[in-house]
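Q: Okay, next protein. This is Transcriptional regulator LacI/GalR-like sensor domain-containing protein from Kitasatospora cheerisanensis KCTC 2395. I've checked the sequence twice, so it should be correct. Can you predict the 3D structure?
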Amino acid sequence: MLVPTVGGYFDEVIAGARAAAATAGARLVLGIAAYEARDDRAQVDRLLESGVDGLLLTPNWQPGDPPHHPGDHHWLAELPVPAVLVERKADPGSRAAELDAVGSDHRHGVLLALRHLAELGHRSVLLAARADTWTAHQVRTGYAEAAPLLGLDARPAIDMHRPGAPLTGSDPDWVAQQIAEATAQGVRAVLVHNDQDAIQLPPLLRTRGLRVPEDVALISYDDVFAALAAPPLTAVAPPKKAVGATALEILLRRLDGGSALPAHHVELLPTLKVRTSCGGDGTA
């Protein structure tokens, strides 16, 4: 199994795959191709050298990257063992689209968050999101689609920095200031991708005279640490463990003689975990 990071979102994906493997009497081998390194192919080669029978892959695809150029990831379609894409979906023009794929429907997750805020009376919701991962791109696309569908005023997204990257003006304090300025224009609700960034915002907003949820309704995306915030954050919860388990089960089916089956492209729907960070009345 190749993932871009551990210590957060993918821990639960790994846990789901590991549990499914244990149930089936299989062994899971983990590899990490860090976001910054962009060395998917080298890490896959190392896993293959270790003698694995199949691969669960989360390539480091960025917005605007391949597989939008069909030849750039041809090696994914030429692997010597079965492979399943995890939390990634290849462009239809790529040969990687012929692989099995299991992931969360992040656009639906954004729709759930915005619908909840709309039902609380909000007419404008601000998005604060990263821009450096495939998932972040899906969240941004989901916002652009869902806001007009729900009759909400769409606003330009606030760009969150990548955790651990050098700060270039997009640090949490700067983001809190952008939110404060938006509240002066009547915005009282924010969707933040992801938990690590969202959890830092309530105290920073408080220093600007804004309380969560009394003055600003806040929803986090990922639901890894959201319940530990003060106040606990309402959060979109992708089905991370189910994604890992389903991907492993499909891979085992392939290994068990299922090569003649058509490719599976499975999208699992996130849920919304309602806590206290949105309050009960978005018009207050």
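A: Here is a summary of the prediction. The domain at 106-237 is CATH 3.40.50.2300 (Rossmann fold). The CA atoms of residues 262 and 274 lie 38 Å apart.
Q: Noted. On to the next one.
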